[in-house]
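Supplementary Methods. Inverse-folding protocol.

Structures were first reduced to a discrete structure-token string of length 238. This string, shown here, constituted the complete conditioning input.
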């Protein structure tokens, strides 16, 4: 009957837990993924491996290779961790390299918690998905790359510009580098001081007496933030 079939289905494909991750500073949670870069001819692609710090949005690791490989992914992680430190958690979707024994063994050896998205739920890896959209919708992104070297040069330049020049709305219009290296608060104070001086010199240029708002850096970055518990009206609970 229908109930028996449903129980069998659930036994074979149990529901995956929703990943709930939080970072309150840089270096705590990294997320990574691989995206295809179009090569010189139709059907030819290169693979860009990209690792992001979810708190600062800083691209901590990026490599471009001719194909996808768990070994190459692990090499990128080792290099990234040697430069930026070993995170507490590494999150990814359920791609072949992401769920490979090679990557799992590396993270286990380093005592890094391994987290995965639920199958076919892109929102479980929002930082990687959003960054790939930023990359591929950028006006400078080419229709095709002439060679592997071209793809690597482009990606290195793009990541450098993103990390150090791109002002991200999700981190108070700071650059990822400023947040990652702890410079955001100081630069926010500098901007506030500059605005104060401008107001003092030319008050007529300001339409209000209120100080211009300086966007704050969020206290935390989440993947699937849990809903706040609802307060129960004592009258309804009685």
């Amino acid at each position: 009957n229908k109930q028996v079939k449903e129980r069998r289905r659930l036994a074979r494909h149990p529901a995956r837990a929703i990943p709930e991750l939080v970072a309150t500073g840089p270096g705590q949670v990294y997320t990574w993924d691989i995206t295809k870069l179009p090569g010189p001819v139709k059907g030819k692609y290169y693979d860009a491996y990209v690792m992001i710090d979810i708190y600062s949005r800083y691209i901590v690791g990026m490599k471009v290779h001719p194909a996808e490989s768990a070994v190459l992914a692990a090499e990128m992680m080792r290099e990234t961790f040697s430069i930026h430190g070993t995170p507490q958690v590494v999150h990814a979707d359920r791609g072949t390299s992401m769920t490979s024994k090679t990557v799992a063994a590396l993270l286990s050896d380093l005592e890094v918690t391994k987290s995965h998205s639920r199958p076919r739920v892109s929102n479980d890896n929002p930082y990687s998905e959003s960054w790939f959209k930023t990359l591929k919708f950028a006006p400078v992104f080419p229709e095709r790359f002439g060679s592997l070297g071209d793809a690597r040069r482009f990606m290195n330049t793009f990541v450098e510009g993103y990390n150090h020049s791109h002002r991200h709305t999700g981190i108070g219009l700071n650059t990822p580098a400023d947040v990652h290296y702890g410079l955001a608060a100081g630069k926010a104070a500098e901007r506030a001081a500059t605005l104060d001086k401008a107001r003092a010199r030319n008050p007529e240029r300001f339409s209000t007496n209120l100080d211009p708002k300086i966007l704050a850096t969020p206290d935390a970055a989440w993947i699937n933030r849990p809903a706040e518990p609802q307060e129960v009206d004592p009258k309804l609970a009685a």
